[in-house]
Structure formats: structure tokens, C-alpha cells
Write a structure and sequence with these properties.
The protein is α+β, with helices and mostly antiparallel strands. It has two domains: 49 residues; 102 residues, Immunoglobulin-like (Sandwich). It contains two helices and ten strands, in the order H-E-E-E-H-E-E-E-E-E-E-E. It is rod-shaped and about 100 Å long.
Length: 155
Amino acid sequence: MSSETIVTALFLIGAVVAAGVLLNSVFPVIMQTGQSFGSVSHDTDTRMRTDFSIVAIYAKSPNIKVWMKNIGTNRLSLEELSMSDMFVSASSDVQRVSLRGAITMSDGGNTWWDPGETIEISAAPSNIPASSGEPVSVSVVLSNGVKRSGEGTTN
């Protein structure tokens, strides 16, 4: 009778130790998975709430001006916009243009691109055609991956 009690106690202690080891090995994986899902969910939400439209493109060699309006519900900082890319395609040549220092905010002092605001991008890529009437294509890719394209002609 006492041997059965000792064996049962040993099995019970072994089960508790095994459960503790299992919990200690599985719990960090569960926490990491939860954080990954939360991060992906936040990024997707930000991307869904970010939307903009290219309103106008004015190109006259060697300069190009692009006006963009924030039509989404998410606001972006000037720093985030500066990390974005603009691709100018003209005369079968594509050039990446850095937006750092090329953005003018419409409200003057605020460093946020709020919903409903329009910004102006001024750049001087080397591939703007000198002759008038040639097509120029512009693609802007924000730092969070949202992309819009537009076309204009040189003046």
C-alpha cells in the first residue's frame, strides 16, 4: 500500500516537472508569435489608412514639380515622406529621385502631412526631356509601400 502511494507521488511530481518544462519552452514562442501578429496587423492597418493622389505634374527641363494630396485617414511625418522614393520616367529612361529636402508642406510650419493637405515636390532629375510635349511619368512610393503613379507632359 505504501509503495503504491510512493509511486503515485513520484508520477505526480514527474508530471508537474514535465508540465513546467513544457510551459517554459512553449510560452516564449507563443509570446513571440503574438507580437509578430500584432506588428503585422499594425503595419497592415497603417497601409490601409494611407492613401494619396497625384494631383498635378509640371515638367519643364530640367525641373519637375509634383503636387500630391493626402486622401487617406493616416497622417505622415515629413521624416517618413523624406524616406519615400520618386521615380521619374522620361525618354525611355527611369531615374530615382530622393525626396529629402524636396518637399514643401502646404501649411507652412507643420511637419505632418495631414488628411486633406497637399504637398509639393520639387526636383531636378537629369532625364526630363528638353522638347515640349514629351510624356513624363512619375511614380511615388511611400516608406510604408503605398504607391501611386501619374503622367504629364513637358512644357
